[in-house]
Write a structure and sequence with these properties.
mainly alpha, globular
Length: about 260
């Protein structure tokens, strides 16, 4: 009963206008929200491409409809996940598991990247939905596609929600970051794809930030909290180092091209 009361209390705070006002007027909260939005944009740029491929078999007029229903599903899932997560994140073992999972994501990314570097270069192939799959056969072409998009949205959201709890546990920060993050994935994903194409090192930076967030979450288990200024300072250093490395790599590539 105590668990349900805590979760319902969290949902009630979604409609606490005083809390809304505090978040909107707090520069630190906007700093965290901005961090979540940028992180979401960098991590989900390719996810948006996957979703676009998943609906490409539908007639043009139904593609936007399927993605819109998927968007609604993503909001519902995040609303539920944040409500339950605010309660669960108070437990030390949940923080340890969350930190371990985020660290796993970051380490796996760099291991996969290293493995890919040792293999032949080739474009990543994004496969569409299997039209003979069980969802299509059960629910039909359109609704089967919508459910597939919903499930993919949930899978993408798990990583983002966990990362969000590593950044902040303020309800409105999490909610605003989540809402804006989903919009980033669907609305301006193309911008981030172009940005990553121009500065490919940004993708690695996103996973370095995930690793920093996992460490931040783990330290909180031992009541060690990174001050806002130090956390944002780490982010600035990470992005500054990214651009320095990018221009150094670009200059090296130009020199090798001239040789």
């Amino acid at each position: 009963m105590e668990i349900l009361e805590s979760i319902f209390h969290t949902y009630a705070t979604f409609f606490d206008w005083q809390m809304w006002g505090e978040v909107l007027t707090d520069p630190v909260s906007w700093g965290y929200i901005g961090t979540l939005v940028i992180l979401e944009g960098l991590l989900s740029a390719d996810n948006a491409l996957v979703l676009a491929v998943m609906v490409k078999h539908l007639p043009p007029e139904l593609r936007k409809k399927a993605l819109f229903y998927g968007l609604l599903g993503a909001y519902v899932f995040r609303f539920i996940a944040i409500g339950i997560g605010v309660y669960l994140i108070e437990f030390a073992w949940v923080k340890v598991l969350g930190a371990a999972y985020l660290a796993y994501l970051a380490i796996k990314y760099f291991m996969d990247k290293r493995k890919a570097a040792n293999q032949e270069e080739g474009e990543e192939e994004h496969k569409g939905i299997n039209k003979n799959g069980i969802l299509i056969r059960t629910f039909g072409l359109f609704w089967g596609t919508v459910i597939s998009v919903e499930l993919m949205d949930v899978a993408f959201s798990v990583d983002s929600v966990l990362a969000a709890f590593g950044v902040s546990n303020q309800v409105w920060v999490l909610l605003l970051g989540g809402i804006l993050g989903v919009l980033m994935m669907r609305g301006v994903a193309g911008v981030f794809l172009k940005l990553i194409d121009k500065i490919p090192e940004l993708e690695a930076t996103a996973y370095i930030l995930i690793l920093i967030i996992s460490i931040k979450m783990l330290l909180s288990v031992f009541d060690i909290h990174i001050e806002h200024i130090y956390f944002f300072g780490l982010l600035v250093i990470a992005f500054a180092a990214t651009f320095v490395i990018h221009f150094r790599n670009k200059k090296k590539a130009e020199q090798q091209g001239q040789a």
